[in-house]
Structures are given as C-alpha cells and as structure tokens.
Amino acid sequence: MKVAGIWRRTIEREGDHVIVLDQAALPFEVTWLALRTLDDVARAIRDMHVRGAPLIGAAAAWGVALALREGHTIDHACRVLAATRPTAVNLRWALERMRGARDAEAEAQAICDEDAAGCEAIGRAGLRLMRDGINVLTHCNAGWLATVDWGTALAPIYAAHEAGMRVHVWVDETRPRNQGLLTAWELAQHGVPHTVIADNAGGHLMQQGKVDLCIVGTDRTRGNGDVANKIGTYLKALAAHDNNVPFYVAVPASSIDRSDAPFEIEERSADEMRTVAGVVAGKPARVRVTDSPVANPAFDVTPARLVTGYITETGVRTAI
Amino acid sequence: MKVAGIWRRTIEREGDHVIVLDQAALPFEVTWLALRTLDDVARAIRDMHVRGAPLIGAAAAWGVALALREGHTIDHACRVLAATRPTAVNLRWALERMRGARDAEAEAQAICDEDAAGCEAIGRAGLRLMRDGINVLTHCNAGWLATVDWGTALAPIYAAHEAGMRVHVWVDETRPRNQGLLTAWELAQHGVPHTVIADNAGGHLMQQGKVDLCIVGTDRTRGNGDVANKIGTYLKALAAHDNNVPFYVAVPASSIDRSDAPFEIEERSADEMRTVAGVVAGKPARVRVTDSPVANPAFDVTPARLVTGYITETGVRTAI
Predict the structure, then answer these.
(1) What is the pLDDT at residue A88?
(2) Alpha carbon B107 to its chain's center
C-alpha cells in the first residue's frame, strides 16, 4: 500500500510495540497509533481505530503477543480480544492460532506476513475478472486499510491498476460509518479513478449499465457460501442479480467459517447513526444529524444464490 | 398535520403572500418562509425549502398566481417554475392547470384543497393494508411535509394511528439529503413510534421478518406502473420482493404520467454528497465529509413487476 507515495503496511512492529494507521481519524487526518498493551489493542479494535476483518485478526494476534509480555495469561488475552467485535471470524481464527503458538511475536508477525501475501494472491486471482476500462462497484472498505496490505475486494483492482489497465471504482458511501470514504482515500493514494455514491445509488447505476462488476469483502463466509458482510451488501447483491451484473466476494481463508455457528449480527451504538464525522471550518468534527430513535445493525447476510463467485488466494471459485 | 400540537398545512395563504414550512431548516429549526414573488417560489422549490412532488405542484401553482400579480406573463411564470425540478410530474401538472385557470388565486387554492383531500382519501384507502402492531418501512419523506396535508405514503399510517392502531415505522435515512429525518420529525409530531435506520439496513430487517409492509411515495408513475421515486427505492423493492414483503406505492392522480416521455433522472449537486447537515455545539452546521469525486442521481425507477399495488385516492389497485 502507498501512503503519500511511500509503501508501508497498515500494522507494523516498531521496537517493543506495534504501530497502526488510525482509521478513526481518516480520511481527515493521517496519523499512526502506537499500541503497547493488551488494552491498547482491545480499545483500538472496539473503537474501530483498526477495522476490517483481516486487519482485526492481525491486530488481535499482536494483542496476544503484547499481553503475554505484560504478564497476562493467554486465556485472559483471548477473552478480552474476542469480546471486541462479534461478527468477524478472523478475530477468533487469529486467537486460535496464537493459542497454539510457541513464539507469540513470531506467530503474530507470521499472521501479518501471510495476510499480506494472501491478499496479494487474491489480487492475482481476481485479475482475470478485470479488463481495461472496467467499472467496478464496491461496498464498505475491503482495501488495504482493512488488511495488512493489498486488501481483499480491492486487491484485484490494484492488481489491474499495476498491470496498466484503466479501472474506475463506484464507491458506496457505506453509512453509518462512511467506510466508503476510506476506500476513496486509499484509491486516491494509488491514483485509481473512483466516484463516491450514496448507498442508495448502486441499483440505479446497474440499471443504467454503468457497473460491469461488483466485488465486496466479507467478515465471515459460511461453507455453504452465505456471506456476512457490511450492512447493505445484500441490497447490492440483489440489484446485481436483477441486472445480470457479476457479483464476487473476495474471501481470504481466514474469513471462512466451516462451523454451524449462527451468524451473530453486531448491533453497534446509536451514536454512529446519530452523528457523522467530517470537517467544520477546517477542523475534524462530528455533526449530530438526529435525536430520533435509531437502529444500527452492522452486517447482513447475502445468500450464496446471489453470489457469482468467490475470489480466494488459490483462484476464483463458484463455491467455498 | 400537527406541528407542536397545532393543526396546520405546509402551505397556506396569508394576506397577499403564502407561507410555507421551511424544510431546509428541519428537523433542526421550525421556521416558516413567506413567499411573495415568482422568484421566491422558484428559489424555494429549487433549493428544496419546499419539497415532495405534491407540495412542489401546490407551491408552483401559487408561484403562477403571485407571478401574474407581479405582472409577469403566464408563459414566463411557467418557464421559470418548470425549470426548477425536472423529475416530479406534479409540477408540470399544476402548471398546466394554472394555464387553463380564469382566477389564478382561486385555482391555486383549489389545487391545495384537492391535494389535502386526495391525500386524506389515500389514507382511508390504505387503511385496509394496516393492522394493529404492524411494522411499516418507508423511504425518503412522503408524509405531510411532502404534500399540503396528510402525505401520500404516510397517509395510511396516520389514518391507522388516528384509528387507534399501534404502528411502528422503519424510516430510511435517505442519503444524501436525509429526508428520512424529516419523516422521523413529522411522525414524532403525531406521536407515531418510529426508528431511523441507515439506507443499508432495510434488506436485513426484511430478512429478519421485522418488516410487514413497505409504502413509498412517487415523483412520477407511468401508466405501465413503473415508479420513479427517491434514489434507493428500487433497492428496497428488490428486498421486499425477495422476502415476500408487500411493497406498495402511494400515488395521487397528480403523480401519474400517461405520456411516453422518458423518465428524466435529476442529477443534483456534488455538495449534497460532500456535506451533511446537522448540529454542532447546539448550532445548525454542515459538516464536510469528503472532497472525493461524487455522483448524485436523485431518483431511480422501480419496475412495476416489483410493486404489489398502488394506493390511490379511489382505492388500492394492482395496476395504474
């Protein structure tokens, strides 16, 4: 990933701590947070300073490593970290790996390295869906900001861009937290043309023939192919199906859940609906848009029947 | 309609001018605007101080009456007013009526009275779709704020509420202009329970069985039953169809277009996407959420195959 023209990762070890790009401040401010303790990591995940299912897993792995160095037990560390975000399966997957590790820091680093390599492989695999001049619609942020590097849904877009293809991305704003603005920001860092649209607009654009391909990420994909992803994904999958637009999900192995555990849909705070982050008079601010009663389910489930295919580290498949 | 417990209309004659509830200031401030000239009315429509297809028609009628009193020709008045908003058919319908009127002020008043009576009739007709304990989802604002009184999509909800039924309304936020917050505000004025949700959430709520009925308004409905309405309506119609939730459109006669003219989809300003209205430190403010390239189509078209029925002044029908 490039930030201000410099290749970096979203999470990196630096001496006795790790640093992460603070996504709660983006796209208004580019700042890096130092995480030194278990509590630092848990708070960063819960308050979405780090977000995106694969990155949550990578951060949680470092959270365990830092916790052990603080003298916490592995059980305590895993309990605290598992409670931060309920839907992303990568979190539990990473904690399970850390439980079995002999060298926690080496394991956390391995999880990060594998995530970056896996995402790069997803990009290579998805490249065959791309062509010069293509218009791709994506929802939420499943780019390098959501992973250690390259992203999942955006990895094929970066691969195509690096290969010299012209790609234009329709970016869903993704209320209530506007992660689409993160997607726009990271695409801009790489010079990939893009247009932000309201979450309401994607169906209309598909009706107008302005979308050639949809690619989204996932927080958890079942063995049967059902996809939990950011709220609103299901609506775009319906529109893609209704307009014969191919709808693909980028799925790293760490996001696959072969258990029968029901999808747990996280209900997030009312404040996310009631306030919007932005800039007022040049300074970051949150504007209060309503005091009305609100609901804020954070994910929905797109049934496998609406998914054209899955882009994995090992190729594009029609089943998981 | 009730504002702070007092029954009023959204547009009323007051001496030599008309007053309208300023919807650009809602829900943060309740203020009434005096419109004295053609230019006042044209600006109020264009900048959405008055909005909602039926109310745009009623305001335009008064715009013609005020223009004639100023000494403008009817042709000039109609040209200026017709240019304000391209999609709502009611605007052209009202201007045609005014062209044929002998007493412009009496005709404008008649258009307002008929709109209020028509919406009340839509409410009575739609009452048969309602039942005690029902959960209704609506998109945008097609309540009394969008009409002279009662509303279109919300009229059956008010009718049910007045009849003593318990009704709960899921209110789509309706980015980019957040007209859902107007819907929440007007429902609150009447004490109708409601919950604001992100535009992304409706499909998930339908999958969960939490929506019994969808009712939306329309800016233009074709003789073949295709419905132009606020951007995002089509996505909710797809989700309703996928989950066997009845999807109804409230259609006053003035919103029916029996011509073959293509739907013209208004592209509104980038600023609507880039900024969000709200309150910062107790004062109305607009927060800038992005400087990215944006697109802002204001309407989409829901094909008749996704519409369960149409609620009109003369009853609920399966075709227009």
Answers:
(1) 73
(2) 22
Tell me, yes or no, if B271 comes closer than 8 A to chain A by beta carbon. Answer: no
Per CB-CB distance under 8 Å, the chain B contacts of A296 are 197-198, 201
Cβ neighbours of B296 (radius 10 Å) = 22
Interface check for B267 against chain A (CB to CB < 8 A): the answer is no
B residues 156-185 lying closer than 8 A (beta carbon) to A:
170-171, 173-176, 178, 181, 184-185
Q: Which is nearest to B62 in space by CA: B102, B113, B17, B123?
A: B17
Rounded to two decimals, the pTM is: 0.94
Could you tell me if the ipTM is greater than 0.90?
Answer: yes
B194-197 and B256-257 beta bridge pairing: unpaired
Put simply, the answer to whether A196 touches B292 (Cβ < 8 Å) is: yes
Nearest-angstrom CA–CA distance, B89 and B67: 21
Amino acid at A102: R
Residue B78: closest CA among B58, B59, B105, B98? B98
For chain A positions 215-234, those within 8 Å of chain B (CB to CB) are 230-232, 234
Compute the distance between CA of residue B198 and CA of residue B203 in angstroms, rounded to an integer.
11
Determine the 3-state secondary structure of A128 from DSSP.
Answer: helix
C-alpha A185/C-alpha A113 separation (Å) is 24
pLDDT at A307: 98
For chain B, say whether A135 makes contact (Cβ under 8 Å). Answer: no
Q: Which of A93, A116, A317, A308 is nearest to A212 (CA)?
A: A308
Chain B residues close to A175, C-beta within 8 Å: 173, 175, 198-200
Banded model confidence at residue B1, pLDDT cuts 50, 70, 90: confident
